[in-house]
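Checklist before submission:
- one chain only
- standard amino acids only
- sequence pasted in full

Submission:
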Amino acid sequence: MSARSPNEHGAADEHGAADRGLAPDRLPTPAPDVRADRPLDEPSPSRLAPDDPRRGPILAAHRAAVEAGQGGYLDPTTGLYVLTASYLLERGTCCDSGCRHCPYVA
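Returned file contents:
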């Protein structure tokens, strides 16, 4: 649980903006990250190993989601929702959550 600071109206904000004298709508925007030098349909080997037996079905599900313009797909093995590289690229920065298709991880 993160600490929240009250802003000038007494409401809390999760960024601690009031502590730095910033209004929550004036928070600094992070600079965009640099995209890794690999195709968007090719995950980093650190996130999906080339010899992973689930690789084929995972990449097929990812490709289908990207072609359909969807932001993610259900992992064929776990059923968890996985964000596509296209969606993550649109965000502009890496969130450091270990996303399988993060386009910013080399």
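Reviewer check: The longest strand covers residues 72-74.
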